Amino acid sequence: MTRMHITTCLNGEEIDFLCEPHQSLLHVLRDELKLTGTKEGCGTGDCGACSVILDGRLVNSCLTLAAEVQGRSVETVEGVAGPVSQAGTVGLHPIQQKLLEHAALQCGVCTPGIVMAVKALLDREPDPSEREVRYWLAGNLCRCTGYDKIVRAVLDAAAELRNLPEERQPA
Amino acid sequence: MGEEDGERKFRFVGTRPIRHDGVDKVTGRAQFGADYSLPGMLWGRVLRSPHAHARIVRIDTRAAMAIPGVKAAATSADLPEIEPGPGPANLAHLSRNVLAREKVLYHGHAVAAIAATSEAVAERALLAIEVEYEPLPVVLDLDDAMAPGAAILHEDLKTRGGKDAGPTNVAAITEYDRGDVDAGLAEADVTVRRSYRTQTVHQGYIEPHAALAQTGVDGQSVLWCCTQGAFTVRAYCAALLGLDVSQLKVIPTEIGGGFGGKTTVYQEPLAILLARKAGRPVKMVMNREEVFRATGPGAATHTEIELGARQDGTITAARVRMCFEAGGFPGSPAGAAAMTVLAPYEIPNYAIESLDVVCNKPRTAAYRGPGAPQAAFAIESALDELAEKLSIDPIDLRLRCAAKQGTRTPYGPTFKRIGLIETLEAARDSSHYKAPLGPDQGRGIAVGFWFNAGLNSSAEVHLNEDGTAIVATGNPDLSGSRASLAIMAAEELGIEVHRVRPVVADTDSVGFTDLSGGSRVTFATGQAVIDACRQVVRELRQRAAKIWDCDPDQVDFVDGRCVPAKGSGLSEEPLALAEVARQAGRTGGPINGQAQLTARGAGPSFATHLCDVEVDPETGRIEVLRYTAVQDAGRAIHPGYVEGQMQGGAAQGMGWALNEELVFDTQGVLQNPGFLDYRMPVASDLPMIETVVVEVPNPNHPYGVRGVGETPIVPPLAAVANAVRRAAGVCITRLPISPPRLLAALHDESGGDS
Ligand code: FES
Ligand code: FES
Fold this sequence. Notes:
The structure holds two protein chains of two kinds.
Chain A: E1 4-10, E2 13-19, H1 25-32, E3 51-54, E4 57-60, E5 73-75, H2 94-101, H3 111-124, H4 130-136, H5 148-163
Parallel strand pairs in A: 1-5
Antiparallel strand pairs in A: 1-2, 3-4, 3-5
Chain B: H1 22-27, E1 42-48, E2 54-60, H2 62-65, E3 70-74, H3 91-98, E4 103-104, E5 110-116, H4 119-128, E6 130-135, H5 142-146, E7 170-178, H6 181-187, E8 190-198, E9 201-202, E10 210-215, E11 221-225, H7 230-241, E12 248-252, H8 268-278, E13 282-285, H9 288-294, E14 297-298, E15 301-309, E16 315-327, H10 334-340, E17 349-358, H11 372-390, H12 394-401, H13 420-428, H14 431-434, E18 441-450, E19 455-463, E20 469-473, H15 481-493, E21 500-504, H16 521-548, E22 555-558, E23 561-564, E24 575-576, H17 577-582, H18 584-587, E25 592-599, E26 605-615, E27 622-632, H19 639-658, E28 689-694, H20 716-728, H21 739-747
Helix pairs in contact in B: 7-8, 10-11, 11-20, 15-16, 19-20
The structure holds FE2/S2 (inorganic) cluster (2 copies).
């Protein structure tokens, strides 16, 4: 089978890769590009562990063909934080920081998907209600937490982001 | 009482530091089972049975091996034959579950495995494997399995604890009794008699099973896998493959949930076997469908209960008979269910009987508090009905017979200090319990119990030259246990929590440690960490004595510093731990502590849950409006993760009560092997889950820790069912309470014994 040559913008950097026409973006990210932060929980679009942001929209990378990202922009969990400082957490996005402060992860396998889903939510709705958060995250399964602490962390992160001065807003 | 209980002021215990592995987990750097790969790696795939019950006549892998890119094939012929025998984990059965030998016993049972240069080639090769089956009648469920003339799954199976010698599908009977049940029932003014059923459920961890194996020409193997117990995997793989334990090193990866389902092996030995045959590393990752078809369900059950009480609420007798579906091989938690079912209560007369029954479904694995949720669903539902008949508040009824210090358990031991009454009182006094309810709304309460486990743990504490410390243990971290172990080390060493680095070590790098399960890590491994830290402290005092040229008895260790003991007459300035660590090379060498123990005296854990629901009488839809989980944690080391486990268990239990069910057709084929149709709770299904952590210290742990993980899944099944019963006015005897089932119950004149 001839492989396709795809050029895309991944976490702000121009990259290219070869893929089979049927290969999912998830598999290319994980197996070809070795970006294993994006997880596979089901491969069928039902768990959200593979969530990435494609041209500003939240998608399941297991349901996205790798070839579809030609000329577009992909954000994965690896691109959310800035460099980690010596103190440990300074580079984190407020979403990541709040998830940690609220102990909103146990095993953590759903966390990368949650981070991406929340980022997509807060990018479009800076002041969501609890109900909006719950419905937005309904595509992201978490089996460990019962969602309580995740929802609280998201509301807290939203408040923090709203209060950050313009120049300190994360990219 | 614990040695420091009450008096001791903790500096770090009870605080909420950010977990040490947190940054890795929110940035995607943490490596889970499927995230490892090696150069030259092959991909392994498993061929699974299309029949739920059949004899294997012949397997031929030659055509598959002829496909370019296929490097190895494995069948049960490649595994040493292990004779059936007794033991907690029957290795003959485990071997046959890993690769079917004489028979396939469920749809999806592993039959053969292939390693090839890509997953696609491996998949193609599976299709080329020829297997000849002789189909047998399918034994679908408990009723089928125990019917006269039922097809027999294991010809050699005898009932453990039973009288019949004949061929049977009943693998074991567990019985406990006391007093005279018939006399007790005769004394009762009011009785309740019901039969309850629960369906097969799945642990539903988000990360599928994954393993990567590498073998050298010297026969040494390394295995990376997501497991709750690296030493357990090592023991099973070595036994199943006929290797010395020292020939295998297991490196536990981060683990994306287990809930008991990752306490056994499936493809781990196959990855090693294929790697040995192919001479190249082999990676195997299950897809979600395989996880549902071939791993870990929690058992379906049928329970019959008869309860009697006097008008004043004194329970006079209980008769309980439970049947658990074990799936293809014996080993359901029927025994644990028998032990837990009446443990929260003092009942003068009882008879408990619990059966472990095989049928053609996947072999059950442990699921959080194994057996206890199903048992609690039955007994707590019956108790609630009894309370209603007696017009007694359901919490009051339970308080009247609640187990306490000195109560003898049905399974033998007598409870030491326990906190059941405290959790009931906290629930009764909560704002939730007093809140008003609207129309079509109901409130349910239920109690749950789990023993908690002790078992074997090792720990190593290495004091670094700058006064930071490494704490290495052998327990994979499923829910923040690194943080709780580090907090305990910080408490002992008197250094900040983030100066302690907790490490999950591989099987070559730390002493034997039983798996992360049974709510044992903070209790048992925590004790090993505390012991190891105390050795370090002893050593620190000796080193300070050397520096001061005095007797170690003249040195005390307080808040991370060596200080002259009271009355020692010394006037030296305190020596900080970091200072002693810095001088270690000149005072006797590196300072390390190492401890190992069999932890005894795990503290039984009790919980009381409250649940409010609203039912829609037209559609049967149930909405959970409010939920409160109260639990005795003994001592909450990191309260954030204690609450988190309580909330997570409650959510799993609500799913079990309302939606979750593995649906099999008449041929034993699973109809819903995906998250779309196996409907676990999502964020929009649930309310906030309020938590009340009660702390009745465990007298057998230095800080009073009991362990938290299992108990929270025990009460919710009944808490939800009781709420629905009170909201809808119909008795709930079957889970899940799906809308059609509730509607049918609402329309059933007979009282809804659906
Ligand atoms: S892996 Fe993509 S949604 Fe589950
Ligand atoms: S933290 Fe384990 S699945 Fe969400």
